[in-house]
SDR family oxidoreductase (Streptomyces sp. SID14436), 247 residues
Amino acid sequence: MTRNVVISGGGTGIGLAAARTFAADGDRVLLLGRRADVLERAAVPGALTYAADLADPADVRGVAGFVGREFGAVDVLIHSAGGNGLLEPPAGGDDPLDAVARHWTVNFRLNVLTAVLLTEALRHRLAEPGGRVLFLSSIAAYRGSGQVAYAAAKAGLHPYAHDLARRLGPHGITVNVVAPGYVEDTAFFGADGVDEEHRARLAAETSTGRVGTPGDVAATLHWLASPGAAHITSQIIQVNGGAERGH
Ligand SMILES: NC(=O)c1ccc[n+]([C@@H]2O[C@H](COP(=O)([O-])OP(=O)(O)OC[C@H]3O[C@@H](n4cnc5c(N)ncnc54)[C@H](OP(=O)(O)O)[C@@H]3O)[C@@H](O)[C@H]2O)c1
């Protein structure tokens, strides 16, 4: 059965890998992100694109209208939009407190507000039964990351997902969170990624002896969206090669 799949942050990294996985199954995919050129360059066969800042309610209303016109119902909603804020424009001025306020606000907007606004805008369109909502958290939500605002923002998604699972469960909709460890080949760490030494350290933290790939996370999202995962809800699935336990 062809499904309608909405993927925020679908133009790069994990969201793009997920888009390719679902499109390869014959599903109809809508890619969302702020940069139209990035979405267009993603070149996922048959995918629709819509550029929007998902932390902005007006933009999200635009997405909801587009989804209503193009899809009607949404079978799978994947929230891959996010980031640690380091690539966003800095606070103006020199006051350190302004910089702290800006950093925490940016992280909340990127990681929590994007997911919450899009969910609330599309909730009534989720397929009943069978709908799937999937959030992207992080290993940082469990153990910090040096970017405390990012870790806290990701952790904030967990109770939202649990609450949503309770609200939507009676409608046959599951809600789960995937929390990756370090994943390479994404835009998360900027154009240069992490340096070799840092990458080797991150690989050494795992039990598998390697860093994660966007495909690792996409495969988990695809599994959680499958009919066979219908009784899995309100879970946080860690995809980190065992790194969270530490070494
Ligand atoms: N890479 C890792 O090691 C890692 C580890 C754990 C968790 N994660 C999480 O996994 C998710 C995917 O990240 P990724 O690694 O694939 O990084 P990525 O390549 O940077 O993807 C993030 C995407 O989110 C979009 N985005 C950011 N803010 C947005 C907004 N306000 N509205 C709409 N779209 C927005 C970005 O596009 P635009 O800039 O064009 O909007 C970008 O395509 C994120 O939530 C991230 O926190 C990543």
The mean pLDDT is 96. The beta strands are 4-8, 28-33, 48-51, 76-79, 132-136, 174-180, 235-239. The helical segments are 13-24, 36-41, 57-70, 96-122, 140-143, 148-168, 196-204, 214-224. DSSP finds eight helices and seven strands in the chain.
